[in-house]
Amino acid sequence: MTGRRHKRSTFLPFSTRPARRSRPAWRALALSAGATVASVSLTAGCGVIPGVTGGSGDDSITVMTWAPSDTDATNKPGMPALAQAYAKWINSHGGLNGRKLKVLTCNERNEAVAAARCARRAIDENVVAVVGSYSQYSDSFMLPLQGAGIPYIGGYGITEAEFTSPMSYPVNGGQPVLLASLGRELASTCGSIALIRPDSIAGDELPPLLDAGLKAGGHHDAVDQLAEDDATEYSGQADKVLKAATSDPTAKGCVVPALGDRNGTFMDSFQRERANYPAVRTGTIGGDVDQTVINESGGQSGPYEGAYITGWYPVASDARWDQMKKVINAEAFGDNRIDPADAGVQTTWIAYTVFKQVVDSLTGEVSSDTVRHALDKGFKADTGGLTPTLDWGRNKKLAAVGFPRLVNTKATLQVVKDGVLVAARKGFVDVTNSLEDADID
């Protein structure tokens, strides 16, 4: 290994690799880049639902949803598409508290400048909130939103700012919850455990989160294997983690790949090498692996068969998603951008569910200020069991360990069975105590 360290704007491995940074890791909210980019006049790159304009002069409620689309990296077109479908559906049922919902959309393009454009357009259009969006460039979009007092409700959960900024109202627990819950499960089912993760500053924060869950389950720390996150093959690293995972002959070992958009490349190498070793199990986190990835990698005969996967929400086949699916069928039938099993689509649905409840709770003006104040003063959002009740106004237990905005500390456990991702157990796993004990520098 080279031992090099790179700063990322995200702390989740399943996002696209952003431009390298030299600032400290995720604990401090990076603002300087956002201030520089936001100072430029930015207008391009955003769109609206056909026939809808921004602004509030017609007594409507305007919001924005952004996500990358048509890029060579991570794409989440289903998020703005679901937002558009939601607006059509809610307006056909009387709107939000009697007012029409207008959804502006913006292509974030997986670029810092484009993310800042989206934020500037949101400010110029006087949006009430940014809802259910995806961007890894929090240092480009969060500062402008914070300066304008615009809440960021239900972002995808891929940046440190989403769990530190007072303008952020996350609906999931991001990577910390997924890794801690995965560790707790593997502790009871695995012998030796090997983690393969990026050789980067962001990667350095993964082992303590996984180990916190392992410790809660009475297990020792995982073997920590570093790897370049832009490699074209990983046969050498696959061999090393397989050796580590099979070092205990009395119990089946486990391998945890956490290389984000290089997971597929690693698993190709892993599948070739594993034939030379005793059987091992794999475990990973939602966002890295979904049903589409499982299908593309061979389904029942692929490397993920039997793997444990932790997620933020119930599996897509759960009845609690039925209302979302009805809206998609009614307003976006045949729109192949919207996959009900995609975590981005699911997060957007939950974010709009929260936003509707906040607006319904207001008796007077609906503005970014009134929405934000309602959220800050103990508003409790019921998501129909897709998450625990969300309350951003309560005392945050995890502020001391760097997650002051993290209010959803629960995850679901899923397993790949016969090539299909299904629930491994009922209900959620709460990892609050594990995160409190995490040794994160």
TrEMBL record:
Keywords noted in UniProt: Signal
Family: Belongs to the leucine-binding protein family.
Organism, as annotated: Streptomyces mangrovisoli
Domain Leucine-binding protein: 73-383
Matching InterPro entries: Leu-bd, Peripla_BP_I
TM ranges: none
Protein name, entry field: Leucine-binding protein domain-containing protein
